[in-house]
Amino acid sequence: MFRIEKLESIEVLHEMKQAYMDLTTAPLDGMWLTGFVPMATHYGFYDGDLLIGYCCINDEGCLLQVYVTPGHAAEDWFEALLSEPAGIGKINGAFVSTAEPQYLSLCFDRFKIFAVNARMYQLAERKAADPSLELSEVNEAQLEEMVLFAHQAIGAPTEWLAGYFGHLISRAELYACWKDGRLLATGECRGYDAYQMEYADVGMIVAEAERGKGLATKMLKGLVAIAESRGLKPICSTEAGNTGAQKAISRAGFASHNRIIKFTR
């Protein structure tokens, strides 16, 4: 009997998750891999009592990952998902990167509308960090300042920022740049505890008044140096429409060969 059931724990998927990662052609975006995917609802694909695959779906009804073990027809399971099975409901779309070729192919076969959601970058040319830039590791006492700064700069919810930055601080992965006591930018060098552990995601937030002055590029060069000092390969990403960030990322020596695609029905 073939069935799709909600999984109460994703621990049973450890080997399948690793098999999924083995199929990727480039590192995946860290925010999706370690943030959005774990928060999504996971469902198991069963052939009798045997778990032979899984998918995960976010609160918007969008697929984030689909995997079926070799020897089973992934196309059939994907079609079953789109037929609104009991307990799942309508699938409204999917997010998938071009570094996930099997999942991407399934989406191209069945979704009519798609657009680039984000660009994914890897370091292509190592460029020296600017010696004039002082990056300081952020401590717990500075958390409130970081949250207020990021909320004003990018509009992210303060509750989410407090948890996210607090986690980075506990791992010594959050940095900041001050001048004359004024916070100009924050930056992260975020490692992994599972899967692509040879990589580190780097990213920065620059105060609105400081944008267009080259600070973002300097921040990224400094974060690249930190990542490499830890023996990690830096990667990063940005929204498809953020041309300012794309220019800064390119100037810091990164190149983008992959995209995150949003599919809709």
Q: Can you offer a commentary on this structure?
A:
The protein is an alpha+beta fold and 265 residues long. The protein has 2 domains: 2-111, 3-Layer(aba) Sandwich (Aminopeptidase), CATH 3.40.630; 121-259, Aminopeptidase (3-Layer(aba) Sandwich), CATH 3.40.630.30. 33% of the residues lie in helices and 32% in strands. It contains 8 helices and 12 strands. Strands 1-2-3-4-5-12-6-11-10-9-8-7 form a 12-stranded mixed β-sheet, sandwiched between helices. The radius of gyration is 20 Å and the shape is elongated. The mean pLDDT is 95.
Q: Which secondary structure elements does this structure contain, and how are they paired or packed?
A:
Layout (H helix, E strand, L loop, with lengths): L1 E5 L7 H9 L7 H10 L1 E7 L2 E8 L4 E7 L5 H9 L10 E5 L3 H10 L2 E11 L12 E2 L5 H12 L3 H13 L3 E6 L2 E9 L8 E8 L8 H15 L3 E7 L3 H9 L2 E11 L1
Parallel strand pairs: 4-5, 10-11
Antiparallel strand pairs: 1-2, 2-3, 3-4, 5-12, 6-11, 6-12, 7-8, 8-9, 9-10
